[in-house]
Amino acid sequence: MSHCLRKYLLTSCFLLGVLLGFVGAAGAAPKPDSRTIVLPKNAAPRLRYGAERLATALRAAGYQTTITEQTKTSRPNSIIIGRATDALLTQAATAYHAAAAKAPGKEGFSIVSADKNTILISGADNTGALYGCLELAEQVQRQGKIGEQISLTDQPEMVLRGACIGVQKPYYLPGRTVYEYPYTPEVFPWLYDKALWVKYLDMLADNRMNSLYLWNGHPFASLVRLKDYPYAVEVDDATFKKNEEMYRFLTEEADKRGIWVIQMFYNIIVSKPFAEHHGIKTQDRARPITPLLSDYTRKSIAAFVEKYPNVGLMVALGEAMEGVGQDDIDWFTKTIIPGVQDGLKALGQTELPPIVLRAHDTDAPSVIKAALPLYKNLYTEAKFNGEALTTYTPRGSWAELHRTLSGMNSVHIENVHILANLEPFRYGSADFIQKSVQAMHNTYGANGLHLYPQASYWDWPYTADKTPERLLQVDRDWLWYKAWSRYAWHADRPRPAEIDYWGQQLGSMYGTDVAAGKQVLEAYEQAGEIEPKLLRRYGITDGNRQTLTLGMLMTQLINPKRYGLFTLLYESEAPEGEMIIEYAEKEAKGLPHIGETPPQVAAEVVAHGRAAVAAIERAAPSVTKNQAEFARLKNDMYCQDALANFYADKVQAALLALRYKHSRNLADLEAAVPLLARSVQHWQRMVALTKDTYLYANSMQTAQRKIPMRGVDATYITWAEMLPVYQKELANLRHNLDSLKQVRIVPAVQKKKALINAPVTLLTKAGTYPLKAGQPVFADTTTAISALAPELAGLKGLRLSQARQLKDGTEVRFTTTRPVQLLVGYFNQKNPRYLPAPQLEIDASANDYGQADIKIANAVAVAGQPPVNVHTFSFKPGTHTLNLSRGTCLILGFVDAKQPLPTYNAGIGAAGGPVKEVDWLFE
Question: Helix, strand, or coil here: 722?
Fold first, then answer.
């Protein structure tokens, strides 16, 4: 045989062997076969939805799949689905010798392999069976086939697991105020997008969420008509019909996915047409409950329950209604619950829809105690970390409130709310989230989750990313929803396995191997510590009046009390530690430090930022999918690194400024200058990283935004807008330091000028008095001024009845031809006798007149009373009525709006006397 022929035959044999081997291998692989999904006759919508989702997964894996409904089955290759108590399931279990599975609890399921290649999916209820279908579908998608010898039982830990959507906007509608947004296609085009709703509801179902909260101030006037108040409807007839159709579509689609729709509303808010018809305001925190308000609200709720029986209600008693007191109890028990009961009676239904009481600005334990004898299907809800994400070690009085509510005869739900310190950047720290859910169980004793969008709540359904086509939150923030819902289902999952799980998930997302996916997770988890640590150690508030990612002013860092410091942030929503001002004072006095300190956090966040950037860079070369989104994620890591460095350097500069406050050593200020300069450089990097990638930092773009700057008409919403502010701070420090060096003495704070009375026509029946020592401040007591700040001397105060202030609140009516400011004095003590100072954390209207911040702290001393802080309310020309809630306060007079009002601590009546602040160095 020739060499060529032998080579040809050998090659042919080799190729034939390869071909036969390939055919053999192909023959050995399981050929796609058929599966019959069997449901009970007249199956519930949830079973049909689950069967369709499972069938879709099977078909994608190559299985020929049909769905049938039968009373019993004898077919091989079947997947039998139903409740454990259904005759179909009990018959199939016997016929196919299915091993008895552990009986699951509510919404639980078991999946068991049986004879003749059959599988039984048995639910404790229809929702459990649905979840069993989704679980098997996910296994098929992951493995590419049906697994062999399946034996699985599972059920959720948390009773309610839900997400919310705000039917609200970043701005106020013309002629309206906060929360007032009728349901219309012009304002909310997405509300009428059925495909978007299906996408969102499928996401909730995939994450095993069973509740959807819709937040709105007064939704009833967009959804129901009232026989007694036909003029209350806020939308035209065509829109009303669209709203009816969409709401029914939404509730039906949600129900077949095992999801309760829960409509949230604020109290007391009425529709604009109703308010105009009766000559009242749509909302007025200071007004009492009246028969008209109660009747209208009760009938609105009754009509809503009758029309939409599968919808629950979430009640916010605070913000639009004076919080904490008998009014809250009466409104809940005599208006809201009777309204629900009236609707059920008209419907002829006995199943009680859930009512969720929001424990915000109300005495929730007292309200629930009074309500439980009247209505059994009650839940309570309270914010986990305020309106931010700050810690998984909550403590203090806030933790005690949660434990109290958890111990009552109702389920307590944890609300992960607003996330004002995270937006707009992506957040996906599985570790932080898992520990937070564990704290919900172990520290708070809660058993429910109510999850806000991770960012851009007010701009639903879009994110803040600057892209050719707006990104959807449901797509961008998939990891946010997936992580919270995973741990709401089971919180105590071993950490090593979780790292593997999320590595696989992120690897799949970006087309990498698991190792690179774990690097993405590492980046998320390192960055995920930055904003929580920054806010809990340096912030003014846990509320959405602060946009953490826009930075903070030096005066906010060194004198937070001037800006309405919300101490609960430090006392309950942070580990034990020290504020910047506490740390500086201890340093000056040589005292030991306790817990988490400002310098410690400064060093830690810088390390977290560096580690996040390094991890995302390690993952980058492996990315083969979703590359544009990965680039945005990578940029977010650089943004958070820059943010961490900005705060770290600025806080170190702030500590040096406070050291100078005590030492009066110019070397301290000289050392602060390069640190503050470096923080500005970091901010310039923030501007560069965000100018082409983000539309805004904060999604609520109204005057309620206060820190770092007041956000009126969508101003100060970008990093570029803040750069000149920070540059000016640096220039001011340099200028003032030069002045100090030249003069060689510490200059006094700018000399204060006496304020001048503005001419107004007072319409309120009240006496007036000149502000000076010895003058009585109330019409019905002899309590008098003992001292006051010099600027206030000679102003014309209003002498009102203290008893009436306590019983009915305070009303001031006046006419002015020029812009003016009204000075109101708040007693600096928390006590039911005193009018609470404006607080945006609990009162959304607390800055409608620019009154939120203290202007002169400790400005007036009144015999036998706490020191008085002065706030200002601004008014345009015209006739005005200012209503303040119940409690004693001082009306200190009117001044021209253009007259400069100093901002400082006068120290009158306060321990230690006047405080020598150093704010002027930066202003």
Answer: helix
CB atoms within 10 A of CB 398: 21
Which residues sit opposite 787 in a β-bridge?
Answer: 861
Query: Under 8 Å CB-to-CB from 193, ≥6 apart: which residues?
Result: none
CA distance 271 to 221: 6
- In the numeric block, which tokens belong to residue 382? 């309270």
Q: How far apart are CA 358 and CA 17, in angstroms?
A: 72
Order of strands, sheet of 78-83, starting from the edge strand that comes earlier in the sequence = 64-70, 34-40, 78-83, 118-123, 109-114, 151-154
Q: Are 40 and 47 in contact (CB under 8 A)?
A: yes
> Six-digit token pair at 605?
């966040």
Residue 391 CA to residue 95 CA, distance in Å, equals: 53
The neighbour count for residue 761, using CB atoms within 10 Å, is: 10
Phi/psi at 390 (5° precision): -125, -30
CB-based burial of residue 500 (10 Å sphere; 0-12 exposed, 13-18 middle, 19+ buried)? middle
Do 535 and 390 touch, CB atoms closer than 8 A? yes
Task: Note whether 644 and 608 are within 8 A (CB).
Answer: yes
CB 454 within 8 A of CB 473: yes
The pLDDT, as a whole number, for residue 31 is 39
Burial, 232: exposed, middle or buried (Cβ in 10 Å; 0-12, 13-18, 19+)? buried
Token representation of residue 829: 């003590």
Omega cis (within 30) before 424: yes
The answer to whether residue 469 scores a pLDDT higher than 90 is yes
Task: Tell me the average pLDDT of the chain.
Answer: 93
SS3 assignment for 131-193: HHHHHHHHHHHHHCCCCCCCEEEECCCCCEEEEEEECCCCCCCCCCCCCCCCCCCCCCHHHHC
Average pLDDT value for residue range 290-304: 97
For residue 23, pLDDT over 50 is answered with no
Give the separation between CA 457 and CA 193, rounded to whole angstroms.
18
- Of 112 and 75, which is predicted with more confidence? 112
Closest Cα partner for 86 from 53, 116, 54, 123? 123
Give the type of residue at 48: R
Query: Residues with Cβ < 8 Å from 282, sequence gap 6 or more?
Result: 176, 177, 180, 218, 269, 270, 271, 272, 275
Quote the crossing angle between the two packed helices 627-663 and 666-690, to the nearest 10°: 170
How far apart are the C-alpha atoms of 412 and 404, rounded to whole Å? 10
Q: Are 229 and 299 in contact (CB under 8 A)?
A: yes
Strands 856-862 and 868-875, bridge-based pairing: antiparallel
- Tell me the two tokens of residue 581: 């001002």
pLDDT of residue 24 exceeding 60, the answer is no
Using DSSP's 3-state secondary structure scheme, residue 446 falls into coil
Q: How far apart are CA 696 and CA 713, in angstroms?
A: 13
DSSP string, 736-792: HHHHHHHH-S-PPS-PPPPP-BPP-EE-S--EEEE-STT-B-BTTS--BEEEE-GGG
**How far apart are alpha carbons 642 and 647 in whole angstroms?**
9
3-state SS assignment for residue 264: strand
**Whether 854 contacts 827, CB under 8 Å:** no
881 vs 439: CA distance, rounded Å: 46
Model pTM score: 0.89
Other C-beta atoms lying within 10 Å of the C-beta of residue 399 = 17
Are 430 and 481 in contact by the 8 Å Cβ rule? The answer is no
**CA distances (Å), 94 to each of 88, 147, 648, 660, in order?**
10, 22, 67, 83
In this model, does residue 101 exceed pLDDT 80? no
The CA distance from 90 to 84, in Å, is 7
Kindly state the tokens that stand for 689: 């990283």
